[in-house]
Amino acid sequence: MSLLKTSQAWLTRQIRGADPVSCLSVTLRRGRTGARRTLRYLGILGPAALAAAVVLGGCSAPAAAPATSGTGSEHSLTLGEAQTAYGAYVTASTAAAKQGDAAQGLAIVADAQWSILHAQYAALSVSGTPVTQYSYGTPVFYVPAQSSYPQWFMVAVPTSTVAGGQPGSAVNTLMVFVRSAQNEPWTLDGSAALDQPLPALARDSDGYAIKVSTTDSSLLLQPNIVGPTQAAVVDEGPTAPAAAVMGSGPLTTELYAQQAAQGNAATARGLSYQWLLEGAAFAQWELRTADGGALVLYTMYLNTITEHPGNLAGSPVSVPANFSPLITTSARVGRHGATANWTFEFAAVDPPQTAHGAKVEVIAGSGAPTYGRGF
């Protein structure tokens, strides 16, 4: 069963009569200053396309998003400057990964990307696991017209992991770079590997991409509730009300099926397995697609617990094997259970309301273990 399902049922009853968007949240601070793990439940009184109220779990922080409506009339960030920033990142990150230089590597990333890379450097320190190195193909730049900070842009580029000096198969990847102020450095804040083609994105007459508001009402879902809608399907499965507007696939219904299978396996061992896909209090980004929809990029946490029923002590419970390199030997096993949490970065296509029968499709996702511990 999904994490805190009993609490979700209670919140469902409380929220059904609430405002169109209402969140209850508990914030847990861990690790880097400003990094937060946020547990939220979102109640949505659905638009006409839903024809009913939908209660969703997991809520991103819309106030943090840098995007605003319209193309703007100024280009404070030029295409050439974005290309320079990207090139500098590739050079610096490649050198840091080769040298195992955590200080240099972590200085050029932020938000979700920091969490993922920090875990890689932790694995290097704890178990000697090398930091992932990448080879990059020819990038395509999407630079929104903007006149103020924070500045940001997106790159679509084929990337390959490098092992033994040889690159593997290339995967088209979306990368978002951000500069929060003039005297701040450019950082990679998020990336997601595409498992479907990237739709055509709109550009203005000068070749700049077009930003979209997080509360744009011309779309099937406002962008700031795309993540929570995905979370509802991952937490509750294809029968969840949210599935009416969220497409099935590897990052929605199949992710639910994977988690449910782990739950069944745990039950067979006499254990309880719970999971929750929840929102992260990081910025999200939106760009207009050529058909009037939006590409939405955002971060989510997948938090899991395997434990003895009732949180009683029992036989040792180990963290999953892919989490072991992150933590010391003493924390890899718990007498009560084990926590294993992932950080995921997603990209979804949110269609215009005029697209008959269309659903939001999650087309890109990348995740990595970022926190695990026995208890």
From the structure above, extract its key features:
6-stranded antiparallel beta sheet, Nuclear Transport Factor 2, Chain: A, 6 helices, disordered N terminus, alpha+beta, 375 residues, single chain, 31% strand, 5-stranded antiparallel beta sheet
Task: Outline the structure in words.
α5 (226-236) runs parallel beside α6 (253-268). A hairpin with a 7-residue loop joins β8 and β9. The protein has helices at residues 5-15, 79-99, 102-107, 111-127, 226-236, 253-268; strands at residues 21-29, 36-44, 54-57, 133-136, 140-142, 151-163, 166-167, 171-179, 187-193, 272-279, 285-288, 294-307, 317-318, 333-334, 337-350, 361-374. It has 6 helices and 16 strands. It has 2 domains: 5-69 and 212-374, no CATH class; 79-193, Nuclear Transport Factor 2, Chain: A (Roll), CATH 3.10.450. The two termini are 20 Å apart. The strands form 4 sheets. Strands 4, 5, 6, 7, 8 and 9 form a 6-stranded antiparallel sheet that branches. Strands 10, 11, 12, 15 and 16 form a 5-stranded antiparallel sheet that branches. Strands 1-2-3 form a 3-stranded antiparallel sheet. The radius of gyration is 21 Å and the shape is globular. The longest helix has 21 residues, at 79-99. It is an alpha+beta fold.
